[in-house]
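Good morning N.,

You mentioned wanting to compare the apo and holo forms, so I went ahead and generated the holo version with zinc ion. This is what I fed in:
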Amino acid sequence: MPVYEFECTNGHITEELVPMGTKNTQCSQCKKKARKILSTCSFELKGGGWYADGYSSSKSKSTNK
Ligand SMILES: [Zn+2]
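and this is what came out, ligand included:
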């Protein structure tokens, strides 16, 4: 089972191991309903940083000449 992040209406972030397809869970701090956050966002950020690094270094190589 994948770990998902959930954010409740108070802004608490809860990480929970839930079955795929689960959209809501209970906040571990205030016990309110928490909504699933798409964790793919952080994945894309990391990948984008890595990609941008490689891109900028190859770009500076050509401008250095
Ligand atoms: Zn909460």
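Residues 3-55 form a domain with the Rubrerythrin, domain 2 fold (CATH 2.20.28).

Happy to go through it together on a call whenever suits you.

Best,
F.
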